[in-house]
Specification:
Oligomer: single chain
Largest sheet: 7 strands, parallel
CATH topology of the largest domain: Rossmann fold
CATH architecture of the largest domain: 3-Layer(aba) Sandwich
Radius of gyration: 20 Å
Strand content: 15-25%
Distance between the termini: 42 Å
Shape: elongated
Structural class: alpha/beta
C-alpha cells in the first residue's frame, strides 16, 4: 500500500517510516511535516492510507481528518500517545471519518513487541478491507416464531459511525418502544469511553454489553471488542472468537446473522457509514428473514462503503439520509409487524 505520513515531529515520522518499510508490500508515498501540507498532498497524491500523528500547530487532528475525508477520502489511522486519556479526541476523529487509532507510547519503529506489531496489524486489516469481496452467504437461517411486542434495533457502523449513532440516539424519544444494540468498529481501549460519550451525547443510558446480557428498552448496549457479539439463545447475548479471520472484531455480520437466527421478535437492521463491507451480508440475512432493513445514504455517509455494499446486495429496504433514520425507526417500532420470509 502507498502510505502518507503526517507528523510535525521528525522522530515520529522516521519511526513510522521504518515500521512501514518492514513490509515489502508497503511504500512511503509522501511525508508531510505540517497539517496544511498534508491536506494538499492528499488532494494531489491520494495515498492508500494515511498515518496521522497529531498534535499540529495550524489545526487540530479532527479538522485535518474532516478536510481529508471531504476533499480526497482515504483510510486514516490516528497514531498518538496515551490513547486512554485522548478518548474524546479519537472518538471525534472517528466521527468525521478516521478508521482507527494506534498508541505511540513506547513505540520506536523497531521493537516488534511494542507498537510496531499493533500498527502493522492495523495496516493488514486495512489492506484486507480494500481487497475484500462482497459475500452474500447462503441466506439460510432457521425459522423462528416471532411475538410482535419485542422490537430490537441492531445497528452496525465503522468510520464516521460514532457521530452518526449519536445523531440517531439523540433523535429517538426517551420512551422509544424497542431495545438497541450497537456494533461499532473501534479498538477495545475505546469501547468504555465510547459508551460514556454516546450516553453524554444522547442522554440515554449506554452500556458495554457483557456475557449474558439481555437487550432491554432502558439500556442501549454497545459491543465490546474482545470478541464478536452474538446471540447465544433467543434473548441472551454473549461473545465468540469465531470467525477468527474476520477483518473486524466485533463483526457486524456476525451479530446481524445471530439476530436473524435467534431473535424471536421484530428486528430492524441498520447499516451506517463505514469502510468495507462488514454488515452487508448480515443485513441481507435479516431482510431474507422478513425483518426491516435500513442503510444510510451516500450523501450523508462519511465513508460510503458498508451502506454501498448493503445496497449492492439488495439488503436494504430503505436507503435514508441520517436525519431520517430515527424517525423511520420510531414508525417501524410503533407499527404492527407482518414478517414475510423469503424462500
Amino acid at each position: 500500500m502507498r502510505v502518507g505520513i503526517i507528523s510535525e515531529q521528525s522522530l515520529t515520522a522516521e519511526a513510522l517510516s521504518r515500521t512501514i518499510l518492514l513490509r515489502s508490500a508497503h511504500e512511503i508515498h509522501w511525508v508531510a511535516n505540517s497539517a496544511t501540507t498534508a491536506v494538499d498532498l492528499c488532494a494531489a497524491k491520494t495515498p492508500d492510507v494515511v498515518l496521522m500523528a497529531p498534535p499540529f500547530v495550524a489545526m487540530d487532528g479532527v479538522d485535518v481528518t474532516r478536510r481529508i475525508m471531504s476533499g480526497s477520502p482515504c483510510p486514516i489511522l490516528i497514531v498518538t500517545e496515551h490513547l486512554g486519556i485522548n478518548t474524546t479526541f479519537v472518538l471525534d476523529a472517528l466521527g468525521v471519518g478516521a478508521l482507527g487509532a494506534v498508541d505511540l507510547l513506547g513505540f520506536d519503529g523497531t521493537d516488534p513487541s511494542a507498537g510496531t506489531t499493533t500498527l502493522l496489524a492495523k495496516m493488514d486489516t486495512i489492506s484486507r478491507l480494500m481487497g475484500e469481496k462482497v459475500n452474500g452467504g447462503n441466506g439460510k437461517v432457521p425459522s423462528v416464531t416471532a411475538p410482535r411486542d419485542a422490537c430490537l434495533v441492531a445497528i452496525g457502523a465503522s468510520a464516521g459511525g460514532p457521530a452518526a449513532i449519536a445523531t440517531i440516539l439523540r433523535a429517538l424519544p426517551s420512551d422509544f418502544p424497542g431495545s438497541i444494540v450497537i456494533v461499532q468498529h473501534v479498538g477495545a481501549e475505546f469501547v468504555p469511553g465510547m459508551a460514556s460519550w454516546l450516553g453524554d451525547q444522547s442522554g440515554r443510558r449506554v452500556d458495554v454489553a457483557v456475557e449474558g446480557d439481555r437487550p432491554t428498552r432502558t439500556r442501549t448496549l454497545v459491543a465490546g471488542a474482545t470478541g464478536h457479539l452474538t446471540f447465544k439463545g433467543s434473548t441472551r447475548l454473549g461473545y465468540t472468537a469465531e470467525p477468527l479471520d474476520s477483518a473486524y472484531c466485533p463483526s457486524v455480520d456476525v451479530f446481524f446473522r445471530s439476530v436473524a437466527r435467534c431473535w424471536r421478535g421484530q428486528a430492524i437492521g441498520v447499516v451506517l457509514t463505514g469502510m468495507g463491507r462488514d454488515g452487508a451480508a448480515g443485513l441481507k440475512a435479516l431482510r431474507d428473514k422478513g425483518h426491516h432493513t435500513i442503510a444510510q445514504d451516500e450523501a450523508t455517509s462519511v465513508v460510503y462503503g458498508m451502506p454501498k455494499a448493503a445496497a449492492a446486495l439488495d439488503a436494504a429496504i430503505d436507503v435514508l439520509p441520517l436525519d431520517r433514520i430515527a424517525e423511520r425507526l420510531l414508525e417501524l417500532a410503533e407499527s404492527p409487524v407482518v414478517r414475510q420470509e423469503k424462500e
